[in-house]
Amino acid sequence: MKLTIKRLFAPRIDQEIFPTQQDESTKTSLFAIPYTRKGNRTNRSFLAIITTAAMLLFACQAFSLPLSKTNPSTPIETTVTTSSTPSPTNTNIPTATTVPPTPTVEPPPFLSGFLTDVQIRLTDGFDTLDNWHTFDSDSGAVSNGMFVLKGKADWSSGVVFNQPLTEGFGVMIKVKTGDNADLKSGIIFNTGEYNMDNYKQFGIYYGRIPQTNLVQGKTGLGYKNLEGNFTPVANSWHSLFMAIGRNGELLAVIWNPNDTTKWSIHHVTMGEKWANLTWEFLAQADIGETVYLKDFSLFTFGQIDIGNP
Fold first, then answer.
1. pLDDT band at 13, cuts 50/70/90?
2. CB of 203 within 8 A of CB of 242?
3. pLDDT of amino acid 72
């Protein structure tokens, strides 16, 4: 069956759908009448249906009417293409706290002979290592409220306080050495990269006669006996505090907690190249020594002012 359509677009309403007058010479049928192969006309009702549908289609186009109507109560589904990257979310970035909250702990009166306005900011009884990290898993462990530091060859054993320290901060701790092997353990501040020009180190070497620990770059400036009248004895507890002052001023004091008249000191002012630096606090030990640490405190102070403790 072949159907021929002469007009592709809708006729004008006033002239073609409802014509009033039309010249026979120009009259064109909208549709050709289909024939069967034998030449018989098709069913007239079928033609009427096709003609009516076509006229409705053209009329809808002429009036720009939609062929279907969307039910307003039915929501229209819309597909939105989004990026595979998730949208950024607001993340609360914690603000760095320079000064931790103050525990209700009074500093020992002994410190007031060396420092002004001392305030304890944090205490740690070594129940865990939350405030510390070790050089490696073999450096030592927490035991009965202490950290037991076991010395290894080439000073490869150590424990480090996690918080960096700046001017106006100090630390206090109780220390006991095992065999008191000469200069086989130390408590220090350090900054920079080891064995490089920017490296600096300050503290105390432990031994039968304690010595100063002072390093600048690759040069050792210490190894002098501490000044004072106290020498820690192996397997007995003593107290130590260290403080970072202004203009490269550094202070370390060891004393007998049972007799505060017995103390020894390491005090230097290194100048501008040692000022405004960020330090870390640590204990380390060489092979042949064991160091015990307990009762750690972090404190702030006003200035170093050495008087009579």
1. very low
2. yes
3. 38
Longest Cα–Cα distance in the chain: 136
What secondary structure letter does DSSP report for 153? Answer: G
- What is the spatial distance between Cα 171 and Cα 111, in angstroms, rounded to a whole number? 11
Confidence of residue 262 (pLDDT cuts 50, 70, 90): very high
Q: Domain 109-300, what architecture?
A: Sandwich (2.60)
Beta strands across the sheet bearing 200-206: 132-134, 157-161, 280-285, 185-191, 200-206, 211-216, 219-220
Round to whole Å and give the CA distance between 123 and 132. Answer: 13
| CA angle centred on 135, ends 216 and 231, rounded to 5° | 60
pTM beyond cutoff 0.85: no
Q: In a 10 Å sphere around its CB, with 0-12 CB exposed, 13-18 middle and 19+ buried, how is residue 206 labelled?
A: buried
Q: pLDDT averaged over the chain?
A: 78
Question: What count of Cα atoms within 13 Å lies in the side-chain half-sphere of residue 36?
Answer: 6
Is residue 219 within 8 A of residue 296, CB to CB? The reply is: no
Task: Report domain extents, the chain.
Answer: 13-62, 109-300
Contact yes or no for 230/240 (Cβ under 8 A): no
Please name the residue that has the structure tokens 């170093």.
Answer: 304
Cα torsion 55, 60, 61, 63: sign: positive
CA separation for the pair 250, 167 (Å, rounded) = 9
Give the rounded distance of the alpha carbon of 141 from its chain centre.
Answer: 26
Q: How confident is the model at residue 49 (pLDDT cuts 50, 70, 90)?
A: low
The CA distance from 151 to 288, in Å, is 6
Helix (H, G, I), strand (E, B) or coil at 282: strand
- Model pLDDT, residue 124: 97
Dump pLDDT digits (tens) for 75-87: 333 333 333 333 3
- The DSSP element (H or E) to which 46 belongs, if any, is helix 44-62
Q: Say how far apart CA 203 and CA 217 lie, in whole Å.
A: 15
